[in-house]
Design a protein that fits this description.
The complex is a heterotrimer. By secondary structure, chain A is mostly helical. Chain A has helices at residues 2-29, 36-39, 46-55, 62-74, 88-123, 128-142, 145-159, 183-222, 225-232, 237-274, 280-289, 293-321, 324-328. Chain C is elongated and about 75 Å long. In chain C, 47% of the residues are buried. Classes of the chains: A mainly alpha, B alpha/beta, C mainly alpha.
């Protein structure tokens, strides 16, 4: 068991190395490379560019710069942002909590909605509700999230005026202005009304695919011999489904969730952009617009770390749910 | 419980189990009559695909619907019509009054729960025991099926046990509540010969000491001779012969039974080629007209091709063959 | 061989009304895209900044209204369809060619090479595709072909894995052994002997890939990293609506192109699922 996770951890480090090399090379190969931001600027002279290159250490050959970058990164220094002149790590850490907040809430919404739908669909196969869920998941997978987001904004912010169109919190929001008794509710609502639409948009594709997956996985398990044994021993149907079948059906879903993590991050980028959510994704978009390569590298690496840690977590959860893994390890 | 015939445990009249498939309707059981008396071992003999397992699963009401459909004129256990029970009442009958064990001991136990969890659950369900009492009862049940170090085994997962051990565990779960009828579906087929003998011994002991009637489903004639008192021979979804085990082996009546016995290798017989029943099991989608066995029957005459024979009584046995109609006249 | 494939197609069409319907709509969309100049009522790139020309609601003159630069949305939809569909199709081709070749080699040769190649796939899969795409797109400022290449090069991994799985099991089959015994080259065995057995899977995958590519391209263009003006796709038509003021004043600017993307992707998905069901009816019964 310990061995298995040690090996997984080594793979994780290797993956990070490959990913860093890959993104570094991609930027290097691009026209202008790391200096792309300044190449097209007509106001700058060649000397200006040379001075900037020297200041950021961009005059050295690429392999050398990669190793410098690697050494600095290992020491927690992701470089300086071209846009703001501040350390990239500080920039990212300022934005990361917002992204994590959005993603966590959306993740739980996805689970809370998708799993019951999947269970209901599997236990009421070909019922009206099952067909409806199936159709909805199909629509959900085909719906462009940015369009869905714009529709929601138009409906709830512009037309009905119920929810704010963007942002994370009202800048002048002051909980102290409310009586102590209702203050927790006010704070909760203040956060919720900003979170609601982005979280729903980000959950959409997860709910669509996870509910379908849960359904087929549970159907698969229910047809297994050991479920027949449980029934033959008089275990009531509810218990058969919720105790005996569910744990077996959840194991592949956990793996899928781990695999879906990159897609989830990608969704967060688009969602943050639509709803002006001040997270890492929005930072990434503006960094890409400004070709701020240090920030792009930094966010890519941080995301990769988070995805890989998420996969590791999924793996751990998988081995808890499925005792056989421990011994095959 | 009103019961006119005190020693009848299970009475099954005209069981018809159909499956709807893409290619048409398969009548897996096509009018099966069976009677199991208290404390006896009834053998169900037949080739694979003749409806043996389907009959047992129909009695357990474990045929998945759709695609399956079960009808019987009578399906009474201890005078209680099983078909009229609600699903909830039925799950109390399963494991408590009728149990079933299966051939595939590996896939028939849930891989993600320990033996103990699965066994204790069944005990708590049927006997209203608290966890502690159920724990002791579980150890008792495992010792009963001669599992060494029973207390230790409780925390094992199915994949940590050998095939014979798993079959014992399944038997322990099925018999933990001392049912009046045990349906054993090829319980020894997947096991080594030595283990087979041990399981057989265990079944015999359960019948004689625990007074559990057993419906033993098998295609193994030797096993049948070893343990059964009466035998019902199934062919293509109907009973073709009902006989005591002595009659069956000394005076087989139905041409199919005769063929089965003739295909047995006998140690004392001189080395001639084993006899084989010509032809194969009929396609359940398009059964022949008249007697189902007529295309393979050496004694086939006109009426066999036109009309299906009923069961004719003959020397204390019953046989579904026109050959015996003449003698009745 | 050929007629079998065609039969399967026909069966899919006959059995699955949804797939047939989806295919009909797709053909309609492709028809409109090809004959865009015929159906367009205005020059799609012609900008009219006069106050009475911008953000007009749908009228007889401007079927779907005009956008914030006074361009006719109906005409832009027709020409935008060309880029959206073309990028989707090109991306699929690139993905399939690269993914199938990669998966075939990995699965056919197996062993250490397969291990290394699949490790690389795993690593690539754990990187959010959109990050790579945006990085590349922001530095290269590509045209529609460049976008297709970029998306294609970052989404071949699942196809490769799918094909590799098939090859791993197919290469153990007797006919491969027979072909080896006859002394055929590996290249010939891979492409002539094994590949035809995977074609159903590849075609289904390709259909779904087009859907994904259309979605990804439109998201990219929406974010401003897709095709650059004067080229435009359905996704870039929505881009201006990121500003609430434009969404509020002229919601139709965002609504119609988005609807077009949605319907196209939906039809592609239905079509792909329909093909899959027709080819593998067992799968439908067991898995759904």
């Amino acid at each position: 068991m310990a061995n298995r996770f040690l090996r997984r951890f080594a793979t994780l480090l290797l993956s990070l190395l490959v990913i860093s090399l890959l993104s570094f090379t991609l930027i290097e190969l691009s026209p202008g490379g790391a200096m792309a931001r300044y190449v097209e600027n007509p106001k700058m002279s060649e000397a200006d560019r040379a001075r900037i290159a020297e200041r950021f250490g961009l005059d050295k050959p690429a392999p050398v710069r990669y190793f410098i970058w690697l050494r600095n990164t290992l020491q927690g220094d992701l470089g300086i942002s071209f846009m703001t002149g501040r350390p990239v790590l500080t920039e990212i850490l300022e934005r990361l909590p917002a992204t994590l907040k959005l993603m966590t809430v959306s993740f739980f919404i996805s689970i809370i909605v998708a799993i019951p739908i999947g269970i209901y669909s599997a236990t009421h196969r070909h019922s009206l509700a099952d067909n409806l869920a199936s159709a909805c998941s199909f629509l959900g997978l085909s719906l462009p999230s940015f369009w869905f987001g714009l529709l929601l904004i138009y409906l709830f912010s512009i037309w009905l005026g119920w929810l704010p169109a963007g942002g994370m919190i009202t800048p002048w929001f002051d909980p102290a202005a409310y009586p102590l008794l209702i203050r927790p509710f006010v704070i909760f609502w203040e956060h919720t009304r900003y979170l609601l639409m982005p979280a729903i948009v980000l959950s959409l594709s997860n709910i669509s695919s996870w509910s379908r997956y849960m359904r087929s996985s549970l159907l698969d398990v229910i047809s297994q011999n050991y479920i027949r044994t449980a029934r033959a021993n008089g275990v009531p149907e509810r218990k058969v489904v919720y105790k005996y079948a569910l744990r077996n059906a959840l194991t592949p879903l956990v793996t899928l969730m781990g695999l879906d993590l990159p897609v989830f991050f990608a969704g967060a980028v688009v969602t943050e952009q639509i709803f002006a959510w001040p997270g890492m994704g929005r930072l990434f978009i503006s960094a890409a617009g400004n070709r701020d390569y240090q920030v792009l590298m930094g966010i890519t690496m941080i995301t990769a770390v988070l995805v890989l840690l998420g996969n590791l977590l999924a793996d751990l959860l998988y081995s808890i749910l499925n005792p056989r893994v421990t011994y095959e390890g | 419980m009103v019961n006119t015939l005190p020693d009848i445990l299970l009475e099954l009249k005209n069981l018809r189990t159909k499956f709807k498939t893409f290619d048409g309707e398969v009548r897996a059981a096509d009018g099966i009559d069976l009677t199991v008396h208290k404390k006896e071992v009834l053998g169900i003999l037949g080739e694979s695909g003749c409806g043996k397992s389907v009959t047992a699963l129909s009695i357990m009401r474990l045929i998945p619907s759709p695609p399956g459909e079960v009808h019987a004129d009578k399906m009474e256990l201890n005078g209680v019509e099983l078909q009229s029970l609600t699903e909830k009442q039925m799950s109390k009958v399963r494991g408590n009054e009728i149990s079933m064990i299966f051939q595939e001991s590996f896939s028939a136990l849930n891989p993600t729960f320990t033996i103990g969890e699965q066994l204790i659950d069944v005990l708590m369900l049927h006997q209203r025991l608290d966890r502690g009492a159920a724990f002791h009862k579980a150890i008792e049940a495992l010792s009963l099926v001669q599992i060494p170090a029973a207390a230790k085994r409780l925390s094992d997962y199915p994949h940590q046990l050998s095939g014979g051990m798993r079959q014992r565990v399944m038997l322990a779960m099925a018999c933990a509540c001392t049912p009046s009828l045990l349906l054993a579906d090829e319980p020894t087929t997947a096991l080594d010969v030595t283990i087979q003998a041990q399981i057989l011994e265990l079944l015999r002991w359960l019948q004689s000491e625990k007074k559990i009637a057993i419906m033993l489903i098998t295609h193994d004639l030797a096993l049948m001779a070893e343990i059964a008192q009466r035998v019902a021979v199934l062919y293509a979804g109907v009973v073709v012969e009902n006989a005591s085990v002595q009659n069956l082996f000394t005076k087989p009546l139905h041409p199919y039974t005769q063929g089965l016995l003739a295909s047995l290798p006998l140690l004392e017989a001189e080395c001639e080629r084993l006899k084989v029943i010509p032809g194969g099991v009929p396609n359940m989608l398009s059964l022949p007209d008249g007697c189902r066995f007529h295309p393979r029957c050496p004694h086939c005459w006109q009426i066999c091709r036109q009309e299906e024979p009923p069961l004719f009584p003959q020397n204390g046995s019953e046989v579904r063959c026109w050959l015996f109609a003449r003698e009745m006249k | 061989m050929k007629s079998g494939l065609l039969n399967d197609f026909m069966r899919a069409f006959q059995k699955n009304r949804q797939a047939t319907f989806a295919a009909a709509i797709l053909l309609g969309i492709i028809f409109f895209a090809i004959f865009a100049p015929v159906f367009a009522t205005h020059n799609p790139t012609y900008i009219r900044l006069a106050q009475e020309q911008i953000q007009l609601p749908p009228t007889a003159l401007h079927l779907l209204g005009t956008d914030n630069l006074g361009r006719d949305i109906w005409s832009r939809m027709l020409f935008g369809a060309r880029i959206s569909l073309l990028v989707g199709f090109l991306t699929m081709l690139i993905t399939i060619i690269f993914g199938v070749a990669y998966g075939a080699v990995s699965g056919y040769y197996g062993g250490k090479l397969d291990f290394m190649m699949m490790r690389f796939v795993d690593i690539s899969l754990s990187l959010p595709t959109i990050f790579l795409v945006i990085i590349l797109a922001s530095f290269f400022k590509p045209d529609f072909f460049g976008i297709a290449v970029i998306i294609g090069l970052t989404s071949w991994m699942r196809t490769a894995r799918l094909v590799r799985g098939q090859f791993l099991s197919l290469k153990e089959e007797e006919f491969v052994t027979a072909a080896r015994a006859l002394g055929y080259s590996d290249c010939r065995i891979i492409f002539v002997h094994i590949l035809p057995n995977v074609r159903a899977l590849i075609i289904v995958n390709a259909t779904l890939l087009v859907a994904q590519a259309v979605l990804l391209e439109s998201a990219l263009s929406f974010l401003g990293f897709g095709v650059q003006p004067p080229q435009f796709s359905w996704g870039s038509m929505l881009s201006a609506s990121q500003q609430i003021i434009f969404l509020e004043e002229a919601p139709w600017t965002a609504f119609f192109p988005g609807l077009a993307i949605f319907i196209t992707v939906l039809c592609l998905n239905f079509f792909g699922e329909g093909l899959r069901d027709a080819w593998d009816p067992k799968l439908k019964n067991i898995a759904s």
